[in-house]
Automatic annotation (TrEMBL):
Domain 2EXR: 28-125
Domain of life: Eukaryota
Lineage: Eukaryota, Fungi, Dikarya, Ascomycota, Pezizomycotina
UniProt protein name: 2EXR domain-containing protein
């Protein structure tokens, strides 16, 4: 029906619609007659291949059910979709456990306990609220590592670099290590950090940053060079594809973009912990892990739209973009177009914004030349940057 069609085209629709298989290829009745090694290989190739990002909150519990201090509770914002192969047969379950081999007990909706199975090679754990001490954090890391048959544990971890709780807690880790932390805890953390593949510091701006309007989008809005429609929206989603460079043809200028708080604060806090562990000293090799800045607009809060319009699907993404257009129209109605006529978009541009539910990936050192404009607000010239793009499947 015409009323059910989406009004805006997004990169998510374009990219993920190519992966829908034709139904005529979904059955193979001679599968059970294949040799066991071939069947195992087929099950392996059938496993989900998307990367996943789990948004978690790690909270300290003074005492857990076993009466042990430094316990913790982990809640998850969006549970993953079930892996069908885990409930088909013995062979398929065996293959699933080889790849999705880490178990993490989390609290989902309505305080429901849920075990999430993690593929450490491709899954990322995003600790959006980080408010624990070094021992509790170490227990969290060590517990997950103990569930790994390969004894590696988490290989990709992310922190919220804009969260007022997370950044002070990250800064406190190095000070905690200087106190009476058991040597076995220090050794376990050091081994884990040395094995990390990537650390992301996620910087989520308010929804107004795409409009060039509002208190966070610019210092007096004089530094914004046009509507930044290409800045991705960070939705409630789990599975994503990662591109080394933003694949979209629509790329607005990133020059003098306001990042509000300094994204380097969390990075420096993490590096201070590495120094305290002795990992970054001349006596030990530098970790092989890669540090990256993640920049996106949160699609979860702000005055742009009601809470019911959270971006979780293609339809809610379309609703969000419609609300954004209405806000832009109000801006011009109030006289903004008089000062910024270059911000106007044609009707065709409005229908084909190629917006994305995802995030930008910037390399380590991107914000080393950040310029303070006002207390708590800073701008970074990103005009020569071509960030990578994480694209969520909605």
């Amino acid at each position: 029906m015409e009323t059910s069609q989406l009004r805006f085209m997004t990169s998510n629709q374009i990219h993920f619609s190519k992966d829908n298989p034709s139904s005529k290829y979904l059955s193979f009745h001679l599968f059970t007659h294949l040799p066991p090694e071939i069947k195992l290989k087929v099950w392996e190739l059938s496993l989900p291949c998307r990367r996943r990002l789990f948004t978690l909150c790690l909270n300290h519990e003074a005492k857990n059910d076993a009466g042990v201090v430094h316990g913790y509770k982990v809640s998850i914002e969006q549970p993953p979709r079930p892996i069908p192969q885990s409930s088909v047969c013995v062979e398929s379950r065996k293959v699933v456990r080889q790849f999705f081999r880490l178990s993490l007990l989390v609290i989902a909706d309505n305080d429901r306990p849920l075990t999430v199975w993690i593929n450490p090679e491709s899954d990322h754990l995003f600790l959006r609220k980080f408010d624990v001490d070094i021992t509790t954090f170490a227990n969290f890391i060590i517990d997950i590592k103990s569930s790994d048959p390969q004894r590696k544990g988490i290989l990709h971890i992310a922190f919220d670099s804009l969260c007022r709780t997370s950044v002070p807690s990250l800064k406190a880790l190095s000070a905690d290590l200087a106190n009476d932390v058991p040597q076995e805890t220090i050794a376990a953390l050091s081994e884990w950090v040395l094995g990390l593949k990537s650390i992301w510091f996620i910087h989520l701006l308010s929804s107004e940053s795409r409009l060039g309007a509002g208190p966070i989008s610019g210092t007096g809005n004089s530094t914004i060079k046009g509507l930044n429609r290409s800045m991705p929206l960070f939705p409630h989603a789990v599975e994503f594809d990662l591109f080394e460079e933003d694949i979209r043809p629509y790329q607005s200028s990133l020059k003098s973009h306001t990042v509000f708080y300094n994204p380097n604060a969390a990075v420096k806090a993490w590096e201070a912990m590495e120094n305290e562990l002795g990992i970054r000293s001349d006596a030990r090799p530098h970790p092989a892990r890669q540090i990256s800045h993640i920049l996106a607009v949160t699609a979860r809060q702000g005055y742009l739209r009601p809470a019911s319009a959270e971006v979780r699907s293609a339809r809610s993404m379309d609703d969000y973009l419609q609300l954004e257009q209405e806000r832009t129209k109000d801006f011009f109605t109030r006289g903004g177009g008089t000062f910024f006529p270059q911000w106007r978009e044609t009707e065709e541009q409005k229908r084909n914004l190629l917006s994305a539910a995802g995030f930008w990936v910037f390399p380590y050192g991107t914000f080393d030349t950040l310029e303070e404009k006002l207390v708590g607000k800073a701008c970074q010239d990103l005009s020569d940057q071509r960030p990578g793009l994480g694209l969520f499947e909605l």
